[in-house]
Request: fold
Amino acid sequence: MNHSANINHDAVLRARVALLGSGKPSVRERVAAYRVLVRVSPLAYLPLLSAALWKYSRYEFAHRPEIALALRAESVAAARRMCALEPGWSDLLVTALTNHRELLILMDRREELRAVEEELTRVASGER
Reply:
C-alpha cells in the first residue's frame, strides 16, 4: 500500500492555503492546519504544532482547564514524536513538559505532575 494513499490531499491543500492566505490565521486555524500537515511533513510541522497547541490551550481555553490540559498533553506528544525523529529537539520537549507541568500544578494533579517532573528531569539531563 502506498503511503500517500492514507493522506487526504484535499485536506492538505486546504491546510496549506489556510496558512498561506493573505491574513494571519487564528491559533485555532493554525492548530487545525498543522494537525493535517504533520502527516505529510512531520519534521517541518511537529514543532509548530507543539507550540500552537500550547498557545491554543492558554489563550482559548484558560477558562476550561480540562480541555487546556488535553491540548497541552497533545503538545507534549508532538514534542516527543519530534524528539524521536530528531533527538536534537529536546528543548522543544522540555518546553512542552514545562507548560504541561504548569497547568498540572494549577489543577493540583499531583500524580500526573510527578510523572511529568520525572520525565522533565530525564530529558533535561540528557537521558531518554
About this structure: The CA atoms of residues 17 and 112 lie 38 Å apart.
